[in-house]
Structures are given as C-alpha cells and as structure tokens.
Amino acid sequence: MPRAVHVAALFAVCALAAVAAGCGGGGSSDTTTTTASATQWANDFCGAFADWKQEADSIVAQFDSLSSLSKDNLQNAANALNTATDQLLQDLKNLGAPDTQSGQQIKDSVDQLSTTIQTQTDAIKKTIDDTSGIAEVPAAVSDVIASVNTMATAVSTTTSTIQNSDAEGELKDAITSSSDCQSLTK
User: Is residue 29 a part of any domain in this protein?
Assistant: First the structure.
C-alpha cells in the first residue's frame, strides 16, 4: 500500500504543477499598489509559476523508486512543497497590478487565486500530516484530489478573468511572447 501513498503524493504535486502550467500564472494575497508594464507583469507572473513548477518537479523526482517511499520522505516532500508555495505566494504578492486599463480587476482576481492556493495547500499538507496508516490512504487521496480540483477551478476562473478583462489584448500578447509563460506549457 505504500505505492498508493506514492501515487497520491505524485498526483498531488503533478496536478499542482499541471494546474500552474495550464494557466501560466498565479495569485497574490496582500494589496499591492505597484504597477508594471504588461510585458513585465506577464514575465513576473509566469516566472513565479515557472520557479514553483521547477521546485515541484524536483520534489516529484525524489520518488523515483519504491525504496524512497516512507512517511518521513512524504512529510519532507510536503514541507518542501509548502516552502515552494510560500515563495510563489510571496512572489505573486510582490507582483502588483499590471499597468493596463483593467489592472486592478486582474490583480483582485489574482489575489483571490492566491488565497485559494494557500487554503488548499494548507489542506493538502494537513491531509498528509494526518495520514498515519494504510487504511487512511484512500480518504487522503480523495481529499488531495478535491483540493487540487478546487485549485484548478480557481486557476480557470482567474484565467477567464484575465482574458475577459484584457480588452486591448495587452496581457494576452505579453503572455504569448513571454519565454517563462511558454516554458509552462511544455
């Protein structure tokens, strides 16, 4: 049954990375009044997620064999993911609003995404912390999947808000041309 724990941990990390890749962006938790050009904002937005995804991929790589599966290794992975997510949220907090007509609306949506990411990351960490035996693994997997699905929905909502708010297409163009944004879709 440790394989089920491994699969759950890999699914959680991979799904979070896929969620990030699918949107090409992230969120913020505190009000920041700074603005950045659309290009700089897109680069910083995607760069924060690219850094997070690189760390998440490194965490997943630790579980390349069954011998690496243990409660301690899973706990260490959860802690590393939490640290990486804290950095992501800090990067996004510092991001501010893009200097576009709808910059504040986009920032507000990113702030909501940030709150959701933090809440669901905390829930995943608690689930892993509270899983102590084989019998608890199926419920833990279900809880992790529910948290990841909640994050995916929040990312989708944020992406839609960015697209719908970007009337002049400034951010869309900037995201399309950003190498960090392009690296997330690979």
Answer: no
